[in-house]
Design a protein that fits this description.
The protein is an alpha/beta fold and 379 residues long. It folds into two domains: 77-310, Glycerol-3-phosphate (1)-acyltransferase (3-Layer(aba) Sandwich); 314-378, no CATH class. It has helices at 4-10, 18-26, 31-38, 44-52, 57-76, 105-116, 134-142, 154-173, 197-203, 210-215, 232-242, 253-263, 278-281, 290-308, 313-322, 335-350, 357-378; strands at residues 77-83, 95-98, 123-127, 145-148, 179-182, 219-226, 267-273. It has a seven-stranded mixed sheet, with helices on both faces. Helix 2 (18-26) runs antiparallel to helix 7 (134-142), helix 5 crosses helix 6 and helix 11 crosses helix 17 (357-378). The model has no long low-confidence stretch (mean pLDDT 95).
Length: 379
């Protein structure tokens, strides 16, 4: 099937589209404050002039994107660390399947790490539900994001799955570029990072040789860990409301989540690049059923993500509170760290209109879940 027309609609901007995009962004009222945030110590008028002269995707990522992420990390975290990248071949394309906690930063931080360590930056999925503000679209498409359709009827969802699968395969096997995709639709809201089997089935859609089709993609799990999860109380509030009624997003809620995730305090941030799963896929029957294959791949990805999650004091504090124990006190956290976390929880919960103590418990469970997942893997 020829998807060339559809690919043209999905793809990121190429160099010929950079100047028109820059010109559109120059007219947006948010551009000046954004550039002032990225370059706090430079003359903003000169920064705007330099920005207006960008003509290539690479120049945009070099001038704007890398500096933007590094400035966010400097202002909102205690530091960014990473591991595992040295074991990946910078001449090979990979499909990075990642846990998902922040709309923008998960993939943006990974891009900076790749860029700074002599790896090509990747194409990135860009949910169509987020493509509303023109400046968000231009920034995304200039950062090698491609449209990923969300929603629709069952038939539309299936057609989109086939299209997405074909495009990702095209990028990896023909263009030889890597791709980032989240392990699930939407961000993890309860702290339980789990890969959706539907994602794996989508990646093999339209192919009969399912196992080999997945091996062609060279899948690598990635785990990003934030000490303080971006938009944590907003996520828990949404889960709480969703238990009793349909949660309806307010106007600009996605945009506010993007901004909140960027400017909110994160504490320590770590990215762990996992190992390609092809070694494990080679061990199984090439004719395994799609359902069995999807379950197996999900298990491989989740095991790496749960193992590679950077657990911090607050995670162990939360785990002990949930399980009514002091098992990790003195080893993983101190009395003061426990007191600080409880203060943090109370402050966050008090910022909502919900007085039910269940919200408090759900908030703590979100921070405890990565420990539970790690311990279950370790058994």
């Amino acid at each position: 099937m020829d998807f060339s027309h559809e690919f043209e609609i999905l793809r990121p901007y190429n160099n010929s589209e950079v100047v028109p995009a820059i010109q559109r962004m120059m007219k947006h009222p948010f551009l000046k404050p954004v550039l002032a945030y990225v370059y706090p110590d430079k003359d903003i008028d000169q920064v705007i002039i330099d920005f207006s002269n960008l003509t290539t995707v690479e120049a945009f990522q070099d001038f704007f994107s890398q500096h933007a992420v590094r400035e966010v990390v400097r202002k909102t975290s205690t530091g960014l660390t990473f591991s595992g990248l040295e074991q990946l071949d910078n001449t090979k394309p990979y499909l990075f399947i990642a846990n998902h906690h922040d709309i923008v930063l998960d993939s943006a931080i990974m891009q900076v790490l790749l860029y700074e360590n002599n790896h090509k930056t990747t194409q990135i999925t860009f949910g169509s539900n987020l493509m509303k503000d023109p400046m968000i679209v231009d920034i995304g498409k200039l950062n090698k994001m491609f449209t990923f359709y969300r929603g629709g009827t069952k038939m539309e969802t299936y057609k989109h799955a086939v299209l997405h699968s074909a495009y990702i395969r095209h990028v990896l096997t023909e263009k030889k570029d890597s791709v980032w995709i989240a392990q699930r639709d939407g961000r993890t809201k309860d702290g339980d990072d789990r890969t959706q089997s539907g994602l794996i089935k989508m990646l093999a859609a339209g192919r009969k040789d399912h196992r080999d089709a997945l091996m062609d993609l060279n899948i690598v799990p990635i785990c990003i860990s934030y000490e303080y999860i971006p938009c944590d109380i907003q996520k828990v509030r949404e889960m709480y409301i969703s238990q009793t009624q349909e949660y309806i997003k307010q106007p600009n809620e996605d945009f506010n989540s993007i901004v909140g995730g960027i400017v909110g305090y994160k504490g320590g941030v770590n990215v762990c690049f996992g190992q390609p799963i092809n070694v494990e896929l080679q061990k199984i029957d090439a004719h395994i059923s799609m359902n069995e294959l999807a379950d197996y791949v999900v298990e491989l990805i989740d095991k790496q993500i749960h193992t590679n999650y950077t657990l911090r004091a607050i995670n162990y504090v939360a785990f002990d509170i949930v399980n009514n124990t002091s098992e990790h006190l003195g080893q993983k956290y101190t009395d003061q760290e426990k007191a600080d976390f409880i203060t943090y929880v109370n402050k966050k919960v008090a910022s909502t209109e919900i007085t039910d103590s269940k919200l408090n418990a759900m908030f703590i469970e979100m921070y405890a879940k990565p420990v539970s997942n790690f311990l279950n893997i370790s058994k």
